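User: For documentation purposes, I need each entry recorded in a consistent format: the amino acid sequence on its own, followed directly by the corresponding structure tokens. There are two entries in this batch. Please keep commentary to a minimum and don't merge the entries.

Assistant: Recorded as requested. Entry 1:
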Amino acid sequence: MVGHTLTQEKSRRRGWIVTFVSLLVILVFIFMGLSCNSTLNKPSTSEDVSTNAVEETSFEEEDKFLQARLNMVENTIVARGVSNEDVLRVMREVPRHKFVPEEFISQAYADHPLPIGYGQTISQPYIVAWMTELLELQPGEKVLEIGTGSGYQAAVLAELGFVDVYSIEIIPELAESGESHLKSLGYDQVKVKSGDGYYGWQEYAPFDAIIVTAAPDHLPPPLIEQLVEGGRLVIPIGPPGGYQSLWKFVKESGDVKAYNLGGVSFVPFTGAGMNQNGTAIP
């Protein structure tokens, strides 16, 4: 009887030991699992945290730029009479802050010109929208821009999505940087070259519309010659540093109808062509 009792006692002790060891093993596995999950959920390095912060900041900045752009369109473009829906659409979409120098990025959506180097400027947003509207562009037409500059006006034209865009810039460095801006934003279809815009771009002429973003002191005859019948030319004309007017010319039956649209201020037109005699304004 005593032997039987001792045997039972030993069995109970072995049972407790087995139970204790089993519980210990289970606890170890649970602890290891928690540690593994904690490690997986943590950023692996401080560099990861920094990268995420930069991305979040970038998204926040782009959102601010978008809101500034929408406000710009409503407050300085729609409010001043531009009503073409396609023009308003592209003015809301093209990121002007991508075309201005870094030191002026905070002013990207202010309604005034900004310097872009080499004595040139990016035009104020209202003027860009107004001149684009005046071109009265239709699907399938070809438009020539004289004065690529930063590439912003060309981007606005290309964003319309239904015209072919050609652009000439007399300053080689600006032609290169303007084309770079356009390509970086996906406007690969815009054809850009460095040259004297006074002579237009005979290789691709005639054009349905021509827009000039610098002011000559007379009307360049080659630009009129490179317009199709019914073509439109929008151009500021006036002496450097003096009074300039924005003109719209329409080619009809071989003649040119001229419309004076009021005073403006543009950088002067440059190039050898400016030494030639111009066409008198009708």
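Entry 2:
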Amino acid sequence: MRHHLEYLTVRLVALAMRLLTPSQVRGVGTLLGLAFYHADRQHRQVALQNLAAAFPHRSGRERRAICRRMFAHFGHVLVELLKVGSLPPARLLELVEWEGTDRVVLAYSHGRGVLFCTGHFGFWEQLALAHGLKFGSMAVLARALDNPLLNRLLERTRCRTGNTVIYRQGAMRQAMRQLAGGKGVGMLIDQHMHSADAIYVDFFERPASTTSALARLALRTGAPVVPLFALPLPGGRYRIIYEHPMEPPRDDSPEAIREFTQRCTDVLEMYVRRHPELWLWMHRRWRDGGGDHVGGMFPPVSAELGADPNSGL
């Protein structure tokens, strides 16, 4: 019953968003996000604790302001995805300004596919949709939602512009097949990981358990890695930025894998420092590793990466 009620609520909101302009939808998102800021005390406290650790020299007032803007932003992410997911392709592209597209063309030109990395920052869902229209399909690694009705709705939205979704089971082999075909694969790298393949890198000068899948996929396939981000513009529009391609790790040593993952994380941190209100501070990114088992969206990669990406497995 709960799953059906959640699904019907989201469908009704989606229908309502179709009647509004992108600018009006962003206003609705602000109201929704601020409502959750006041109602969701648990996540508000987690966000404030994270902000205090990341920005110890900022005042409590400044951190609370960032927290409020962050909740408002994630209201934008939710309702604008419902709006953008219903737009014709040409109208969606009209909402986007592009920066660094020549870097994507260069990365694809090597014929090894491209790994795209970002985090729960800005409008990560919208950038994948727009990328599919601009450069062709991208496979997005994702964790299925607990509500299967909402997950099917989200998957249909994610795939509207030709993209595909790769879930946890067999994810690495599917990703390698995509790269072997010269296509793109998108990954989020800012989830806490608690598995044998997790590695610790510094994020805001604190050790953060991070997936090694991105580095190992790059090493295994030779695919360049392009960090990308989507920032808000006035009027419900977006600027999508592609950073410079990064070459795969030099070898499979633990230090090379960690160093490469650190470089990717440093790019994400640079954007979060510039726009702290656009990152998911309510996520418990830093944990002590004792008793906090979170599988995340990535399976252990060691066995899967031994497979031939052309084997059809």
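Summary note for entry 2:
Residues 60-84 form the longest helix (25 residues).
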